[in-house]
């Protein structure tokens, strides 16, 4: 889990140095990102860190993201000169294809050499994208730790995979774009920021607004509510300083304050689901927690929050 927002500059510098040190000894870097948020789940200066090192971008969690967006994002990363692949570490879908890609690179590396050299790789990515899950998938039970061999960075171990490949056992943990509030929100939606430090109700309301605009059909089907037209047209809506859509408010509470249409939608959902407290108050805490959980586990649908320009 994320060591939360406390990425000190010194901390970042150290991580970066560690990755750069290991980078010298690897042939290829596997960069894992979250397919639901391919921009927010990438380290902002990853290109600067990896420079022209050969890279495979893994769009992980493809089981809960939007399949047609996965394809577009793969194309996008390929157009930048990388290899790219959608992956599901829960089922293992995509692992065989990754294997084939790696074998090709290994053979390329050895094409003129008499003594076969192993392909060496490391996995990098921001917290919670599935780096450890991928390592487990790649190593399976047949992996073995290599001992203190020359060339192995102290404290680091190389895992011997099948087919003459070696994987650094600890992934390079990078930091996401905390300075961008939109990225922070996306990371929080996807569970990359500890919920204890978040305002669940506020976060769920933000998520609901986003989903109502981009995936209204999924919201309607899951919660048996009708998403008002004006919420569906968020793209055209004016936004305030923090990027929140400004709607023409039509409903007012008993004190005369406007009620956001997203809150009205949440109210509808609460009533449909029976999230009501004694005294007929709506149980926003339960609503918030459930909507976030259902989004994160893919129950609302296959959703990608960040789209390519393609
Ligand atoms: N739905 C889904 N969940 C995944 C996938 N890969 C990993 N996860 C889950 O995402 C969470 C973080 O995974 P982990 O491997 O610990 O990420 P790391 O922090 O990058 O090492 C765990 O709850 C995993 O079970 C995937 O492909 N699909
Ligand atoms: Mg991990």
Structure write-up:
It is a single chain. The longest helix has 16 residues. The strands form two sheets. Strands 1, 2, 3, 4, 5, 6, 7 and 8 form an eight-stranded mixed beta sheet that branches. This protein has a two-stranded antiparallel sheet with strand order 9-10. Helix 7 crosses helix 8, helix 7 crosses helix 10 and helix 7 packs across helix 11. It is elongated and about 80 Å long. About 4% of the residues have low confidence. It folds into two domains: 165 residues, Rossmann fold; 98 residues, Conserved Hypothetical Protein Ylqf, Chain: A, domain 2 (Orthogonal Bundle), CATH 1.10.1580.10. With 310 residues, the protein is of the alpha/beta class. It binds guanosine-5'-diphosphate and magnesium ion. Guanosine-5'-diphosphate binds next to helix 5.
Span from first to last CA? 32 Å
Mean pLDDT across all amino acids = 87
Helix content: 25-40%
Structural class by sheet pairing and helices: alpha/beta
3D shape:
elongated
Low-confidence runs of at least 5 consecutive residues: 142-153
The CATH superfamily of the largest domain is known as P-loop containing nucleotide triphosphate hydrolases
Number of helices: 11
The domain count comes to 2
Give a quick account of the main beta sheet: strands, pairing sense, barrel closure.
Answer: 8 strands, mixed
Order of helices and strands: HEHEHEHEHEEEEHHHHEEHH
Give the CATH topology of the largest domain.
Rossmann fold
Ligand list:
guanosine-5'-diphosphate, magnesium ion
CATH class of the largest domain reads Alpha Beta
- The Rg value, from CA coordinates, equals 22 Å
CATH architecture title of the largest domain = 3-Layer(aba) Sandwich
């Amino acid at each position: 889990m994320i060591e939360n927002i406390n990425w000190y500059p010194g901390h970042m510098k150290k991580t970066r140095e560690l990755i750069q040190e290991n980078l010298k000894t690897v042939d290829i870097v596997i960069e894992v990102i979250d397919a639901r948020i391919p921009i927010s789940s990438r380290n902002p200066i990853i290109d600067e860190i990896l420079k022209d090192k050969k890279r495979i971008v893994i769009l992980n969690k493809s089981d809960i993201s939007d399949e047609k967006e996965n394809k577009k994002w793969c194309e996008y990363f390929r157009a930048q000169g990388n290899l790219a692949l959608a992956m599901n570490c829960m089922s293992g879908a995509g692992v065989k294809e990754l294997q084939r890609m790696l074998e090709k690179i290994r053979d390329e590396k050895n094409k003129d050499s008499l003594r076969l050299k192993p392909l060496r790789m490391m996995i990098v990515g921001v917290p919670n994208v599935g780096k450890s899950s991928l390592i487990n998938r790649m190593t399976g039970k047949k992996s073995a730790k290599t001992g203190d061999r020359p060339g192995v960075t102290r404290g680091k171990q190389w895992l011997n995979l099948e087919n003459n490949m070696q994987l650094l056992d600890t992934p390079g943990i990078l930091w996401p774009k905390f300075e961008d509030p939109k990225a922070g929100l996306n990371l929080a939606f996807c569970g990359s920021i500890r919920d204890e430090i978040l305002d669940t109700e506020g976060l769920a309301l933000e998520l609901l607004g986003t989903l109502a605009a981009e995936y209204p059909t999924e919201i309607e089907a899951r919660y048996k509510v009708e998403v008002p037209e004006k919420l569906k047209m968020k793209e055209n809506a004016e936004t305030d300083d923090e990027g929140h859509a400004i709607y023409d408010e039509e409903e007012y509470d008993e004190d005369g304050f406007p009620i956001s249409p997203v809150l009205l939608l949440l109210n509808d959902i609460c009533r449909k689901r029976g999230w009501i407290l004694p005294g007929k108050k709506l149980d926003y805490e339960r609503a918030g927690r459930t909507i976030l959980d259902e989004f994160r586990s893919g129950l609302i649908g296959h959703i990608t929050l960040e789209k390519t320009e393609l």
